[in-house]
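RESIDUES AND SHAPES:
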Amino acid sequence: MKMRTHKGVTREDRDRQSGAGETRLDPGHLPARVAGRRGAALVEFAIVLPLLMTLLLGIMEFGMIMHDYIMLAQGTREGARTAAIGRPVGDIQKRVMEAAALRDLRPAMVQITAYDTNTGAWVAVADKASGRENSVVSDGIVRVTVKEFPHRMVTGNFFSFLPGYSNGYFKLNSSLTMRRE
């Protein structure tokens, strides 16, 4: 049922006659306020783009750093467990390298130390004369450390302000201590 309005004309009839609801803009003859908004949007985009790119690059680089750090932590955990059961130093380093599975990790970066209760210092661990186990005494404390692993920065020098950054690399360290069984 159509509702009659003033003077007996329905709203639909009035809208149809006036052309309401139709947009008839000629792209070449935009109102001044609409044409000016196009330039404002471009300026706003130019201001926001560097911030968005910095955020995107930061998320990407942080993710890559965390990946390498987690792999190092896994390697040191496996190495500490291997040291705790008394395996030789060579086996401990090999286990760290296998578990971390990082291309730039070298055996020289892996340090195995034990806490000397007499001196109160950490001393390097060696193998016993038999070569089948390390020299850490039973119930002693052994620590496996990976020092200065060079994480290659994907973004180059973009985040060179970070502490630990040097010549395109970010130095990562990981350490874990266990009691010798």
Summary: DSSP finds three helices and five strands in the chain. Helices lie at 11-18, 32-84, 89-100.
